[in-house]
Amino acid sequence: MHSAYDAIKGSLIDGVGASPGVAIGPVVAVSVEEVELTDLANPIESIGASAARVSAKLKELSTQTREAGRDDAADVLNAQSLMAEDPMIADAVSEQLDAGLAPADAFDAAAEGLAALLASLPDPYLAARAADIGEVMQAIKRDLAGVDSEGLTITEPSILIAHELTAAETAGLDANLVLGFATETGGATSHVAIIARSLGVPAVVGVANLLEVAPTTACLDGGAGAFAADPTADVKQVFEQAAAARASLQLRLDEVTGLKASFGDTPIEVPANIAGTSDIAKAVEEKSDGVGLYRTEFLFLDVPKPPTEEQQFEAYKAAAEAWEETVVIRTFDIGGDKPAEYLNMDEEENPFLGIRGVRIYDLFPDLIDGQIRAALRASAFGKVSLMIPMIATVEEFLSVKSRVVAQRAKLDSENVEMGDIELGVMVEVPSVALNAHRFAEHVDFFSIGTNDLTQYTMAADRMLGSLAGLHDPLHPSVIRLCQMVAEAGNAKGIKTSVCGLAAEDPLAAVIFATVGITKLSVSANSVNLIKATLAAQDQSIRDEVQSVIARAESAQEVREQLGPHVVKP
Ligand code: PEP
Ligand code: MG
Questions:
Q1: C-alpha to C-alpha distance for 433 and 438, rounded to whole angstroms
Q2: Which of 40, 65, 192, 551 could disulfide-pair with 103, CB 3.0 to 4.6 Å?
Q3: 47 and 29, same structural domain?
Q4: For residue 342, which phi and psi values (nearest 5 degrees)?
Q5: Of 471, 475, 499, 565, which one is the catalytic site residue?
Q6: Is 191 a catalytic residue?
Q7: Helix, strand, coil shares of the chain as percentages rounded to 5?
Q8: Which atom of ligand 1 is nearest to the CA of 293?
Q9: For position 33, what pLDDT does the model report?
């Protein structure tokens, strides 16, 4: 938890920060009354009719939400609307009714069964849909019982507390009246969290026994995951100070928005990481310097078949047209934690060390060539670069390069317009960093993926929470590899960027800038924090960084010795 709250720890109920911001005010508890569902004659027909009504309502809410510019929330609601139409819902309930359960129980049992089925699927996207099925089925049940499900009305600015809030309830909240909310269920990546962030409403989820405590007033900090029920004046003061600090940081961030960043005399580009067209608006709003990492594999995942060249072209063109600066398209990084069912790849014991990223391309040449063509065609509409994930050897890079050359020649012969495209390599495997001076002979740029580079350097699975201490990109060995890449690149006049999560850690950003990295690609939310952080530093920090990274034996030492020297914006 944020250190500002350490002094009042005993007065807090811990939760998980879901949407940043501080809220202080009266509490309204949202209680959900049990739905009475007595008779279900013709269950398949009646459930089908209710499901269609629920689906239409969710679709309408999704459209309104999209019109309000909240694409993330709209996507969740749209997915739920499609789910409501699935006949498996009526089938599952009627199976439970046939087994002799009463209607309301049959609904609950069917919802539980379907959620468990989804949760057990290997595809993480589908597994995450388990929560949606429960929400959708509750909505159908309420519709069948004739209960209005849009009952969240509040009349004065308040903090809402609830056991849980559905995506539809959250999306429908009036952001002018809801100061913040807290729920007993949910995690940082739950839909309530996504929607709260898109509404800009502070939220804390996973707050135990919230309704039992039944506060009449509360303070919450959605960045720190802190919740205080019926706060004393002292407790309230700590939250007020946190709110003031946040407001002054926001002022500073507003000041740097749209300005070019630099570290001392060195210009530093701060582009955004995106994963699809719906991320463009936010990154443009934050005035990112283009896109440093377009995670295109998300176009290929959770769909029954891969996107066509045309669909990809439209997606890449939309990004290319949105910025004057470069959009770096990463060729699809399927495999590891991101499998695509339709490729029917063999199960592997160690998927992170298996057929992943570039290693897939020769198995599916049409897929990679189609993507390259789409990117080349998009390059007529803006500045586009391509970079290749999971490269370990120069040969792998050259093999993709020859695909790009071949596709360009083909498109040329078809008289298709194209711009120049730079071709870079992601540095995720230590072999690339160690051999960076050889790669520098062939590549147009380096982009360090610190998430994987750390995983492969420290031999610590990035998905394993218990190894988070080992999986620290500020370990001196990882920093040293980053420095080697930047030095090899700078010696050849080739740009090195960092596009892993570490780039948005202010301390790491200062270290990267010191060791010669001139581009930091971060999530849209962090663009201006990183710009402001670089601007706030006294250049004497460079000596501090060099001396600490030369001596430190652990990531912890780097953090402890350098952290206090980094000036907060
Ligand atoms: C990385 O590995 O740091 C990276 C940016 O790629 P991804 O997180 O998508 O694997
Ligand atoms: Mg990676």
A1: 10
A2: 40
A3: no
A4: -70, -10
A5: 499
A6: yes
A7: 50, 15, 35
A8: 5
A9: 67
**Does residue 499 line the site of ligand 1, with CB under 6 A?**
yes
What's residue 2's pLDDT?
46
Q: Residue 272: inside a domain, yes or no? A: yes
The Cα-based distances of 314 to 118, 301, 334, 364 in angstroms read 31, 17, 21, 22
Domain final residue, candidates 99, 125, 144: 144
195 and 311 belong to one structural domain? no
CA of 520 to the centre of ligand 2 (A): 15
Q: Exactly one of 191, 219, 471, 482 is catalytic; which is it?
A: 191
Catalytic residue status for 471 = no
Residue 163 sits in which domain range? 9-33+151-234
Coil, strand, or helix at residue 514?
A: helix
* Domain match, 309 and 451 both: yes
Taking the whole predicted model, whether its pTM rises above 0.85 is answered as: no
- Is 245 among the domain residues? no
Q: Is the CB of 451 under 6 A from ligand 1?
A: yes
* Interatomic CA distance for residues 266 and 476, integer angstroms: 23
pLDDT of residue 462: 86
Q: What is the pLDDT at residue 309?
A: 98
338 CB within 6 A, ligand 1: no
Written as one letter, the residue type at 393 is T
The number of angstroms, rounded, from the C-alpha of 117 to the middle of its chain's C-alpha atoms is: 25
Residues 276 and 201 in one domain: no
The three-state secondary structure class of 547 is helix
Asked whether residue 222 falls in the same domain as residue 268, the answer is: no
Residues 67 and 207 in one domain: no
Same domain, yes or no, for 407 and 467?
A: yes
Ligand 1 atom 1: the closest Cα is on which residue?
449
> Has residue 294 been placed in a domain?
yes
Q: Which residues of the chain have pLDDT under 50?
A: 1-2
Structure confidence at residue 485 (pLDDT): 98
**What is the pLDDT, as a whole number, of residue 152?**
63
Task: Render 367-432 in DSSP notation, one character per residue.
Answer: HHHHHHHHHHHHTTSS-EEEEETT--SHHHHHHHHHHHHHHHHHHHHTT-----EEEEEEE-SHHH
In a domain, 192, yes or no: yes
Task: Kindly state if the Cβ of 132 falls inside 6 Å of ligand 1.
Answer: no
CA 40/CA 44 separation, integer angstroms: 9
DSSP readout, 67-122? HTT-HHHHHHHHHHHHHHT-THHHHHHHHHHHTT--HHHHHHHHHHHHHHHHHTSS
Distance in angstroms (rounded) separating the CA atoms of residues 159 and 109: 33
Q: Phi and psi (nearest 5°) for 215? A: -70, 155
Residue 59, domain CATH:
1.10.274.10
pLDDT, tens digit, 9 for 90 and up, residues 249-304: 999 999 999 999 999 999 999 999 999 998 899 899 999 999 999 999 999 988 88
Total number of domains in the chain: 3
Separation between Cα atoms, residue 463 and residue 367, nearest integer Å: 27
Any idea what DSSP says for residue 335?
B
Query: For residue 280, what pLDDT is reported?
Result: 94
The β-bridge partners of 447 are: 426, 497
Domain end marker among 234, 254, 276: 234
Residue 381 sits in the same domain as residue 432: yes
